Structure formats: C-alpha cells, structure tokens
C-alpha cells in the first residue's frame, strides 16, 4: 500500500507543480493590476496625502508580489510609473521610482531584487539625498541611498566587476539632476553605491557623477555600447555671472563623455556626435513625460 501511494505521488507531482505555477502567475497578475492603478495615483494625484498613501500601498503590494515564487521572471510591464531594469548578467534587477512632494521636490524609492531562483532576497533602498552633502565624494549603502530613477544599467568588466547606472533625478522647482551611479557588491554580497572609477574631468576621484541643470531644459545622458561610451550634454551657465548657480545651467550644444578603458571610465571632451549611433528612445524616457501620458488616460469626471 505504501508503494502505491508513493507511486501515485510521483505520478501526480508534475500536475501539482503545474497547478501551483498557474496559481502563482494568477496572483502576480492581480498584484500587477493593483500596482498599475496605485502607480498612476502617486504620479497623477494633485493631493499630496493621496500620493503618499498610494505610494505606501504600492510598496506593500510590491513586496507581496515579489514574495510570490519565481516573481523575478515576471515583468510588471504595465506599471509605467516606475523603472524596472535587469542587470545585463541577470544577477539582479532594480526597481526605482519617485513621488513628488508638495513643495516641488522629490523623494525616491526602490529595491534590488536578487535572482536567487528561489526564496526572495531583496535590498530596500532608503533615499537619503537631503543629508548627502557631497554626493560625488560619498560611498553609501542601501540605507543611505542617493535616490534616483534609473533607466540604464551597464556591467563593467574589471578585477572586481561592478555596474554603472544612469538615472533621472528630479530635484526641485528650479532644477533637475541626472546621475551616473556605481553599484557593486561587497564580500558579504551587500550592495554598495559609489566607487572611485572615474578619471579626469574637473572633479577628481568622483565616486559618482551628478549633473544639475535648469528644470526648463532637457539633458542627454546615455550609453553607446558599440563605443563603450557614456555620452552627455556639456552644461554651461547662460553667462559667467551664473557660474555658481547650477540651477541656471543648460546644454551648450557640445558633448562630453566617459569612455571605458581597462575597467575605468576616462573623461573625454568635445565628442563628435555625428559619429555616435542614435539611441533607443526607450532608454531616454523622462518620467515626467510618462506622467503626462498617464494623465491623459485618466477619465475626466463630468461636473454636474
């Protein structure tokens, strides 16, 4: 009799596993729909309290979703309010997003989900931007994150491989920032942000690169894989009197960059953009543009 039940269990196990996978996928789709709705609220709602409440519910819902087995392989493609990018080697993926404060400043949220193939392993990111006085000279951990919304991740081959991420960082009513961030993992597999891998430029031994410019302008910051080059607009003040006010800076139609050389990023001036391939538009989506698109999809209540 024991052999019979053992044989029956072996026979049924593939069907039980398949049924469980179907249930997990169904749960993820339910979470996905909730996240899509909540994301639109914390981006589009004009009410500060409503935005923050929606974001809190979003965080708890996202954590529940990521706890579902094999959630790493679920794309959450319709959740347009956040950025989700996978490392090129698929070691992890990073979720990042922003919520606007009442005064026009921003707070950033995120988490790193490791690709364990099993139990959830993630590292929540706590935005500590207001307290990081010298971000280009700081090495931080997940509890002291220089928050940003990332749109590109690059794996760098070196003696100890690390990752470079390009991010958008809305700042305040006057200026916007963009960031070239460095992410590595220490011997305990804990994430570390920032590393002295940039050579040249005005600031020496940068741990990350931060650009600030007027909110009325747009700035190019993208990676050209064929050239192993991060290219960006050169930012300049409208006149010399404004040289100490980065909130007035804007592109001056010249381009600089960082080129990968022997595991480090070497600063290069005055790039000829005619020789640089065009970017994939998906890598350049400004979250504010997506927010405007989301607003158009929200039904307008009729006034009675």
What are its keywords?
alpha+beta; five-stranded antiparallel sheet; 3 helices; 14 strands; disordered C terminus; signal
Give me the secondary-structure topology.
Layout: H1 2-44, H2 48-66, E1 83-86, E2 92-100, E3 106-114, E4 122-126, E5 149-156, E6 162-170, E7 175-185, E8 191-193, E9 198-199, E10 209-214, E11 221-224, E12 229-236, E13 250-261, E14 264-268, H3 287-297
Parallel strand pairs: 9-14
Antiparallel strand pairs: 1-2, 2-3, 3-4, 5-6, 6-7, 7-8, 7-10, 11-12, 12-13, 13-14
Helix pairs in contact: 1-2
Q: How would you describe this protein?
A:
- It is globular and about 60 Å long.
- It has helices at 2-44, 48-66, 287-297, and strands at 83-86, 92-100, 106-114, 122-126, 149-156, 162-170, 175-185, 191-193, 198-199, 209-214, 221-224, 229-236, 250-261, 264-268.
- The chain starts with a helix and ends in a 7-residue tail after the last helix.
- With 304 residues, it is an alpha+beta fold.
- The chain has three helices and 14 strands.
- The longest helix has 43 residues, at 2-44.
- Helices cover 24% and strands 31% of the residues.
- The strands form three sheets. Strands 5, 6, 7, 8 and 10 form a five-stranded antiparallel β-sheet that branches. The protein has a five-stranded mixed β-sheet with strand order 9-14-13-12-11, with no helix packed on it. Strands 1-2-3-4 form a four-stranded antiparallel β-sheet, covered by helices on one side.
- Residues 4-13, 281-285 and 290-304 have low confidence and may be disordered.
- The protein has a domain at 19-77.
- Helix 1 (2-44) packs antiparallel against helix 2 (48-66).
């Amino acid at each position: 009799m024991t052999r019979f039940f053992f044989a029956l269990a072996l026979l049924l196990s593939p069907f039980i596993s398949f049924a469980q996978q179907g249930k997990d996928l169904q749960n993820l789709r339910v979470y996905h729909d909730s996240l899509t709705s909540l994301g639109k609220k914390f981006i589009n709602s004009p009410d500060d309290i409503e935005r923050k409440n929606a974001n809190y519910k979003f965080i708890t819902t996202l954590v529940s979703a990521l706890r579902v087995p094999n959630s790493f392989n679920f794309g959450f493609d319709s959740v347009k309010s956040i950025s989700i990018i996978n490392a090129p080697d698929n070691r992890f993926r990073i979720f990042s997003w922003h919520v606007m404060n009442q005064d026009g400043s921003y707070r950033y949220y995120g988490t790193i989900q490791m690709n364990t193939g099993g139990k959830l392993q993630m590292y929540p990111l706590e935005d500590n931007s207001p307290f990081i006085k010298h971000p280009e000279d700081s090495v931080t951990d997940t509890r002291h994150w220089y928050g940003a919304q990332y749109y590109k991740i690059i794996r760098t081959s070196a003696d100890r491989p690390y990752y470079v991420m390009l991010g958008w960082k809305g700042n305040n009513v006057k200026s916007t920032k963009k960031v070239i961030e460095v992410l590595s993992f220490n011997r305990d597999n804990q994430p570390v942000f920032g590393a002295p891998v940039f050579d040249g430029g005005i600031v020496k031994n940068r741990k990350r690169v931060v650009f600030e410019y007027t909110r009325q302008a747009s700035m190019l910051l993208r990676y050209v894989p064929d050239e192993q080059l991060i290219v960006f607009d050169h930012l300049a003040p409208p006149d010399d009197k404004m040289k100490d006010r980065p909130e007035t800076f804007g592109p001056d139609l010249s381009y600089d960059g960082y080129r990968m050389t022997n595991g480090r990023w070497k600063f290069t001036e005055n790039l000829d953009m005619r020789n640089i391939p065009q970017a994939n538009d998906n890598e350049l989506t400004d979250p504010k543009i997506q927010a405007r698109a989301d607003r158009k999809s929200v039904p307008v209540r009729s006034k009675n």
